[in-house]
């Protein structure tokens, strides 16, 4: 007889050995009990007992698929990937995105809700609850399958308390996300900065490829970085670590929303690209953008610049190259500060990846301190527009699978 996993038995999963075995099955399955015992150095009876429990809770199933050297096929273990789901939320400036993933991070459902102008704390929470309800009770997904909810929120977040301390796009402070969602949905809720969730998502299911020292840079309406050091997200003393959008690149550059001048995001984030394009187009620079926006400069945004670049517009290609060089300076600073094995560039602006990459690589080549610094691997996000939301799901998975 099997026992259905319930949220109440979550504490059960906290056992270290159980969690390590579960993760080994996730990463290396299908795998035999004997191989698990060998790799973990736990005794075969211990492994057997824990595996029995994992099968009872339906996290793991037995399979006979796998290598067989004649004779009896060995019984192997694998993750019961679609038995449990997690729900991830990415809170952007204009939209909130909601995804449902299985235990392997595969997308099962997606929805998105607009965030109106000048929202209050209550508005943010009620949009979140609406999106969660839409996915839990649409009839498409069994609500009992959900292990928990992860939230990737822009700005400064207190991940321990699950509070958004400061969300600059909304100018809001102290939104008690964890407390509110746990109260309404009675499941685990984890909250983290969106650049960090993007990094976590790439580390588990994207282009991280087990680079234990890596950085994910989220370039959208602002710029933030999630820093993974020895396989763990680094927060700094007050969760401010990684705010590279506000690293000064040009002392006499444009004024930033933070009050300083020439921050990286005043030169390389989406709105900065649009602003530079507008300024130069007004001086009469030739570009097909004039036609694309019908002479209305208000319609110029990052997307239009990218579209023009794809159509071979030299003005737009140069502009994105220049943006890549600014980003390259920011990334070189990161390389010299924490020396990651890999940097993953994601977020809306990274859609223009190919045009940016040239400028980024040239800058790192010319400014990197040593050959090793210059060789730092720079890649685009694999999970693309869903990276932060999928990474938010990983916040929940981390509770079950100890790496
Ligand atoms: Zn700034």
How does this structure look, described?
The protein has about 400 residues and is α/β, with parallel strands linked by helices. The chain folds into 3 domains: about 5-80, Arc Repressor Mutant, subunit A; about 85-205 and about 385-395, ATPase, nucleotide binding domain (Nucleotidyltransferase, domain 5, 2-Layer Sandwich), CATH 3.30.420.40; about 215-380, ATPase, nucleotide binding domain (Nucleotidyltransferase, domain 5, 2-Layer Sandwich). Helices cover about 40% and strands about 20% of the residues. It has helices at about 15-30, 35-40, 45-55, 120-135, 175-185, 195-205, 265-270, 270-280, 290, 300-310, 315-340, 355-365, 370-375, 385-395; strands at about 60-65, 75-80, 85-90, 95-100, 105-115, 145-155, 155-160, 165, 170-175, 190-195, 215-220, 225-230, 230-235, 340-345, 375-380. The chain has a 5-stranded mixed β-sheet with strand order 5-4-3-6-10, with helices on both faces. Strands 13-12-11-14-15 form a 5-stranded mixed β-sheet, with helices on both faces. A hairpin with a 2-residue loop joins strand 12 (about 225-230) and strand 13. Helix 2 (about 35-40) packs across helix 3 and helix 10 crosses helix 11 (about 315-340). It is globular and about 75 Å long. It starts with 15 loop residues before the first helix and ends in a 6-residue tail after the last helix. The chain binds zinc ion. The site of zinc ion has 5 residues, from loops. This is ROK family protein. It holds the Pfam family HTH_24. One of its GO terms (molecular function) is DNA binding.
């Amino acid at each position: 007889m099997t026992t259905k996993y319930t949220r109440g038995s979550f504490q059960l999963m906290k056992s270290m050995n159980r969690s390590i075995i579960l993760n080994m099955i996730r990463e290396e399955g299908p795998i035999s009990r004997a191989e698990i015992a060998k790799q973990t150095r736990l005794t075969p009876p211990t492994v057997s007992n824990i595996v029995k429990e994992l099968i009872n809770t339906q996290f793991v199933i037995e399979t006979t698929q796998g290598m067989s050297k004649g004779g009896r096929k060995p019984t192997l273990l694998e993750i019961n990937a679609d038995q449990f789901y997690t729900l991830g939320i990415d809170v952007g400036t204009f939209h909130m995105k909601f995804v449902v993933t299985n235990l392997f991070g595969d997308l099962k459902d997606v929805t998105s809700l607009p965030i109106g102008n000048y929202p209050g704390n209550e508005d943010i929470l009620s949009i979140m609850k609406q999106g969660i309800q839409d996915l839990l009770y649409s009839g498409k997904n069994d609500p009992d399958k959900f292990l928990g909810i992860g939230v990737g929120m822009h700005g400064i977040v207190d991940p321990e308390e699950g509070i958004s301390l400061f969300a600059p796009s909304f100018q809001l402070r102290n939104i008690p996300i964890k407390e509110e969602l746990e109260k309404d949905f009675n499941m685990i809720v984890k909250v983290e900065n969106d650049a960090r969730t993007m990094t976590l998502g790439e580390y588990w299911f994207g282009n991280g490829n087990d680079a234990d020292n890596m950085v994910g840079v989220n370039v959208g309406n602002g710029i933030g970085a999630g820093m993974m050091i020895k396989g763990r997200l680094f927060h700094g003393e007050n969760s401010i670590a990684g705010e590279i959008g506000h690293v000064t690149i040009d002392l006499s550059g444009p004024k930033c929303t933070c009050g300083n001048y020439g921050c990286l995001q005043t030169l390389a984030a989406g709105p900065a690209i649009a602003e530079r394009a507008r300024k130069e187009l007004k001086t009469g620079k030739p570009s097909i953008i004039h036609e694309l926006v019908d002479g209305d400069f208000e319609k110029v945004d990052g997307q239009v610049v990218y579209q023009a670049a794809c159509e071979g517009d030299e003005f737009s290609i140069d502009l994105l190259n220049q943006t890549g060089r600014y980003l390259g300076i920011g990334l070189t600073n990161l390389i010299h500060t924490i020396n990651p094995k890999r940097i993953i560039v994601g977020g809306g602006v990274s859609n223009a990846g190919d045009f940016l990459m040239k400028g980024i690589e040239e800058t790192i080549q010319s400014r990197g301190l040593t050959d090793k610094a210059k060789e730092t691997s720079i890649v685009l996000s694999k999970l693309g527009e869903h990276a932060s939301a999928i990474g938010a799901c990983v916040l929940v998975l981390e509770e079950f699978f100890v790496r």
